[in-house]
Amino acid sequence: QLDGVAKAYYADGILRSESLYENGKLNGKVKEYRPNGQLHYEREYMDGEENGMAKEYAPEGYIIRTTEFVDGSQEGIVREYDEGGRLLRAFEASNGIPKGTIKEYYLTGNLKSESIVTDKQRGMGKLKEYYQTGELWREVNVKNEQRHGLFREFYKNGAVKTIGDYRNNERDGTFKTYFSSGQLKTEVVYEKGAKITFKTYDEQGFPVIE
Q1: What is the predicted pLDDT for the residue at 156?
Q2: Euclidean distance between CA atoms 104 and 82, whole angstroms
Q3: Which of 53, 111, 142, 153 could bridge across to 161 with cysteines, CB 3.0–4.6 Å?
Q4: Could you tell me the pLDDT band of residue 116, with boundaries at 50, 70 and 90?
Q5: The pLDDT of residue 187
Q6: What is the 3-class SS of the chain, one letter each residue?
Q7: Taking the CA of residue 42 as centre, how many other CA atoms within 13 Å lie in the half-sphere pointing to its CB?
């Protein structure tokens, strides 16, 4: 049975992987390399099962993804990074499947969006998007990764800019837009994505005749 360091090579002799064994089981750090010799993955093992933090590296050498493992299963927070080490995306996984909230970030570090699972069995959730300055921009209910239900868009001051409903990723029913003052601006009726009627108002609330 294997004990100590085991190495594997590509056909041209370039190191492909190096692993540490103890009593025939992977125990310690495992490194995997690209055909050009650059480090691709780092993994941690205990008693033959992957445990701890796994790291994936870009060809340029920086970390692009970290994943937590427990007893061979992907459990915990997955984080994805850009070339500057800035966090781009983070989510919790269980048995390798994303759960809870998936968060994406601007390069500034501010939150860009949140995908929130509200009912996994029915594929229901909510998507929230934010301005780069941090204010809530848009939110919409989703079903099976499609817009389905209430949609709202906001001005930076928090006032509602647009409100309406989606059905199976199509606008359905009445969509209203507002001036930043709160005054109604447009009122559009949709049916399965098709525009049925359209009304426009000025900032004093009077209908605009076109």
Answers
A1: 95
A2: 12
A3: 153
A4: confident
A5: 96
A6: CCCEEEEEECCCCCEEEEEEEECCEEEEEEEEECCCCCEEEEEEEECCEECEEEEEECCCCCEEEEEEEECCEEEEEEEEECCCCCEEEEEEEECCEEEEEEEEECCCCCEEEEEEEEECCCCEEEEEEECCCCCEEEEEEEECCEEEEEEEEECCCCCEEEEEEEECCEECEEEEEECCCCCEEEEEEEECCEEEEEEEECCCCCECCC
A7: 14
C-alpha torsion 105→111→112→117, nearest 10: 100
With vertex at residue 73, the alpha carbon angle to CA 72 and CA 77, rounded to the nearest 5 degrees, is 125
- Give the number of other CB atoms < 10 A from CB of residue 121: 5
Query: What's the pTM value of the predicted model, to 2 decimals?
Result: 0.74
Of 45, 42, 4, give the one whose Cα is nearest residue 24: 4
Write the pLDDT tens digit of every residue in 47-97.
999 999 999 999 999 999 999 999 999 988 999 999 888 999 999 888 877
Which tokens hold the place of 209? 């005749």
Cβ contact 103:87 at 8 Å: no
Answer whether 174's CB lies under 8 Å from 164's CB.
yes
Q: How far is CA 177 from the centre of its chain?
A: 28
Residue for token pair 């069995």: 121
